[in-house]
Fold this protein.
Amino acid sequence: MVLDTMQSMLSFLRPALQVGLLAWLFYRFYTTIAQTKAQQIVKVVVVLFATYALSYILKLEVLLFFFRYISIPATIFICIVYQPELRRSFTQLWSGGSRLFRIGTQTTSSDQIDSILNACNVLVNKRRGALIVFPRRLGIKNIIDSGTRINADLSTSLILTVFDHDTPLHDGAMVIQSGRIVAAGCYLPLSEQTDIKKSFGTRHRAALGLAEESDAVVLVVSEETGAISMTYNANLYYDLDTNTIKRMLLALFSYHDITPEELMQEAGSDETE
């Protein structure tokens, strides 16, 4: 009697567990790529799947024959075109997990962000460039190892010293993690995107390149224009004011991915309330 009861429970739980696990995996994959250029993949896959299902139900033999022979080439084509986004998405999916299992590594405080932004404003006035990287869930040990280890307390004066024209580290990127300057003079991969504005220099392309391969947030101070920009989730947000940057950094360090437009909408809704 007890054995029959357990078997009946297992027969019910087994499909429920499978459906739940698949739903979680699809949800995690979608939320990972939702704010990147790879979100187009979801739309393409949904359209193709719906067309195939309709063809199967209506027994449209020509379309079924077509799908049978293009499925593998289409999969290879999508993997080639969206390779950087897919690599980043799968890495983030398996290493990040759901919010319940996330272990944060970026604990830079509000006061420390103020120190960083004060240094950025000074660099803007002096027309000096800077690249500042904030790792989040995914490790960037290869990036840190490409530069010079510092492991120093974060301060405005030290940031300004590193990015001074007379120092050997000013051309590379600085990595800040857990409120400390981990390394400086680090080399970042250049972006593989082809639709970047020609006016963007190497710093912007390097910042975007790292944002394509990891979930890191990168601040860019332009030497030519004095604009402060931010890259993350394979997107570049150009010429932001310091108040917007601070609010976005606090949200991103809490693993709440947000765009400047969404931030403005939230601010507008708060004012109306």
Summary: The beta strands are 130-134, 148-153, 173-177, 180-186, 217-221, 228-232, 235-237.
